[in-house]
Amino acid sequence: MPKLDICFSPELLPLYDLSGKVAVIVDILRASSTIVTALGEGITHVFPVASLEECTAYGQEHGCLTAAERDGLPAPGFDLGNSPFGFLDAARPMRGRALTISTTNGTAALRRSLAAEAVVVGAFLNLAAVADFARQQQRDVLVVCAGWKGQFCLEDTVFGGALAARLAPDFDVRGSDATLAALHLWRQGQADLSAYLLQSAHVRRLNSLEASQDFEFCLRIDAYANVLPVWENDRLV
Ligand code: 3SL
């Protein structure tokens, strides 16, 4: 039976063997939610990059949209920041465009996980699509939480618990204390996810940046139930 394990921070990745596994990259607030929204709203493909310099260079080379965030704020000089609402702006239709994006933690976590057999992007918005993919693959799954500057984040871990709950009993979700802890947190918070996650450090950070509408949006479970960003060659499609 395939196993599901959870890596609480990209700093812990050297302790895990990604080979042969499905890596699910999660940064609920907000990079993975924003990437799912972008693809769900008609962006053709996404080039996630770690540095702002790469983002600028990619944008110039490929003539694509650029999005960048540092410390929760839009980085200056790019078309967009890291809000999913950037892709829901009817006044600026983006359907059919490609995107390059760089965020503080999420895109760097993805770049550090490319040794996996398959790499997908997970969020509450596409929980069903991630679970379906894992079932099809029948491989061990590692949920890679982007965290915040190397530290644990509640919302990413709770997503890991939600995915474990969806995949049980067909996956072994009892093999690591990380997964057990995530399941406990999910069970604790699932009845009112918004109230539960309101306590988290990153929600407080976003609220102080007046991005609280992003928080509510990112918790909409299965709003993009058919959208699965999958790594192919050098991009997410
Ligand atoms: O760290 C990241 O990758 C971002 O998602 C953080 S923020 O939500 O844009 O502040």
From TrEMBL:
Reaction(s) the record says it catalyses: (2R)-O-phospho-3-sulfolactate + H2O = (2R)-3-sulfolactate + phosphate
Key word DNA-binding present: no
Membrane-spanning segments: none
UniProt-listed SUPFAM superfamilies: ComB-like
Keywords assigned by UniProt, alphabetized: Hydrolase, Magnesium
Cofactor dependence: Mg(2+)
Enzyme Commission code(s) on record: 3.1.3.71
Entry-linked HAMAP family: ComB (MF_00490)
Family of this protein: Belongs to the ComB family.
Protein name: Probable 2-phosphosulfolactate phosphatase
Organism listed in the record: Hymenobacter antarcticus
Organism phylogeny: Bacteria, Pseudomonadati, Bacteroidota, Cytophagia, Cytophagales
Gene designation per UniProt: comB
